[in-house]
Write a structure and sequence with these properties.
By secondary structure, the protein is of the alpha/beta class. A hairpin with a 4-residue loop joins strand 10 and strand 11. The longest helix has 22 residues. It is globular and about 70 Å long. The protein starts with 6 loop residues before the first strand and ends with a strand.
């Protein structure tokens, strides 16, 4: 594995010096920034897109918290542990459900406009895997509502560097010293005490996915090259209900519609699964129908029978189906799509990674709270809970750190120049490979095929001097494949057709160390 993939000399680059850098402008990054500002730290936020475009901003369903009269964090804890199929790190789940409840109260005080009844009480809905109605929501635009509040809190109090993406993370003796960013035409060296990675997950590495535009997972590959340990990459959650229209993106239809009563039916109009089971079970049930050449539909008519207006309660879903010529009285074609990355950069509850000075939070991190299968609507809770805690950790780290001088150079990899068309061809090839062999169902034969193709692709791409983005995705894909090969069982979102049962010996976390050394370890 190559340490640096691009050509650079830090002595010749324009320099920005700042206290702390946050890579990513989603809710994880913004919530961390809110607390850093409270500590007197003015972070620099880097984003290859404009703020408010991220996976967390697209989150429809809501944010889970045991705020109801008949609910309790202990019940939320049990539901999360159950969904995680034995791989949740209990102490971190405790933090999520207990401190997360406090952070949700903060959101209420920040005036996030959660839906309320006529008496002003917050409305709660129920989603798959939850034993209680505990999901707070703003119609079906919860992520956008929460993110917008955070953005407005910080937009005039932080520095933004937009339309730049992270290319290289610079380290000396396993300690962070800076990053190199690019906008496609120029490179900048940014020197800072610490780096917070909040760039989202890696579901777009699959052909059919629900991810936000330009979210890709390549920064996780860059972090791996910098020495960060990756964890549980084989666990990728496929959302059961993404709109299925030939040659169209996989637009998400929130699980909350099923929580309110919508049902799944096959092409004969028959229900075939309990819609409120954990997502992995529902997604595989739908996948099996498609594997038989059948289709699956979401029936929204039960909502109308309950007096729930799709247009008012789920305006995003309503406008989506309307744009494709459907109404709430029609059967809506759906199928699974890669949605959420459970694995990522190994991090503590305070965001610390295996490299000094690098922190990770949100979907790019793996703190072990989701285990082998994320409980619905725990992701926004994760962003704000661990963003808050990471800010404390960064503040303490920065107290004892200095901005280092940087004198590093790299000749890059190959000499050829990859064209835009060639780049797109490789990307589609990669996405198809991951979807076909490393998707909802996996097998040793398929994983071997995928690994062979990925290693061939890696060799080809290293001949180019401008293939950094693709190589980082190849490294990440290789990590997913090797992790899936190592786990010779089925657990949560990881399903092996050749090993369909859970095994006690695999009640461990998959960790990837330097040069793709794979270990199964107990946390």
């Amino acid at each position: 594995m190559e340490r640096y993939l691009t050509e650079f000399d830090t002595k010749k680059l324009p320099v920005i010096t700042t206290d702390t850098v946050i890579a990513g402008a989603g809710i994880a990054g913004l919530s961390t920034a809110v607390q850093l500002i409270n500590f007197g730290i003015k972070p620099l936020i880097i984003s290859k897109k404009t703020p408010t475009i991220s996976n967390s901003f697209l989150a429809q369903g809501g944010i889970a918290a045991a705020i109801g009269k008949e609910d309790d964090p202990q019940l939320h804890y049990r539901d999360t542990i159950k969904a995680g199929r034995g791989l949740c790190i209990g102490k971190n789940v405790r933090i999520l459900v207990e401190e997360g409840l406090e952070r949700v109260v903060d959101l209420i005080n920040y005036k996030v406009p959660f839906d309320r009844d006529e008496e002003g009480n917050i409305l709660l809905t129920k989603e798959g895997g939850h034993s209680k109605r505990r999901v707070l929501h703003v119609k079906d635009k919860t992520g956008s509502a929460v993110g917008t509040v955070f953005y407005n809190l910080i937009k005039d109090r932080v520095d933004f560097l937009l339309n730049y993406y992270l290319e290289e993370i610079l380290t000396v003796d396993n300690r962070y010293v800076g990053i190199i960013v690019s906008n496609g035409t120029e490179k900048l060296l940014i020197r800072s005490k610490s780096l917070i990675i909040a760039t989202g997950g890696y579901s777009p590495i699959y052909l059919r996915n629900t991810s936000a535009y330009k979210i890709s997972g390549d920064t996780i590959g860059a972090a791996y090259r910098a020495g960060c340990v990756l964890k549980d990459l084989e666990f990728v959650q496929f959302h059961p209900t993404a709109l299925f229209i030939e040659n169209q993106p996989a637009y998400l239809i929130t699980e909350a519609v099923r929580g309110e009563g919508a049902i799944l039916v096959d092409q004969n109009g028959e229900r075939f699964v309990n819609e409120m089971k954990p997502r992995d079970e529902v997604a595989r049930a739908i996948f099996k129908k498609y594997a038989k050449g059948e289709k699956v539909f979401l029936d929204l008519r039960p909502l109308k029978e309950k007096g729930i207006s799709v247009k008012k309660r789920f305006p995003t879903v309503y406008n989506l189906i309307k744009s494709f010529g459907f109404s709430e009285n029609d059967l809506i074609p759906v199928s699974p799509a890669a949605h959420y990355s459970i694995g990522g950069i190994e991090a503590t509850a305070n965001g610390k990674t295996s490299v000094e000075g690098i922190f990770a939070v949100g979907e790019s991190s793996c703190t072990g709270i989701h285990g082998a299968n994320r409980l619905a609507s725990n992701s926004l809770l994760e962003c704000i809970t661990f963003g808050y805690k990471t800010a404390y950790s960064v503040y303490i780290y920065n107290m004892y750190s200095k901005i280092s001088s940087v004198n590093i150079s790299s000749k890059g990899t190959g000499n050829k120049i990859i064209s835009r068309e060639e780049r797109r061809g490789y990307l589609i090839r990669l996405k198809k490979l991951m979807w076909e062999y490393v998707g909802l169902e996996r097998s040793e034969k398929g994983l071997e095929k995928a690994l062979s193709e990925i290693e061939k692709m890696e060799k080809e791409l290293l001949a180019y001097k401008n293939s950094r983005y693709l190589v980082d995705l190849v490294y990440l894909s290789k990590g997913i494949i090797l992790s899936a090969k190592t786990r010779k069982e089925s657990r949560g979102t990881h399903y092996r057709s050749d090993f369909p049962e859970e095994k006690k010996d695999y009640k461990k976390h998959t960790k990837i160390y330097n040069d793709f050394k794979i270990k199964l370890e107990v946390n």
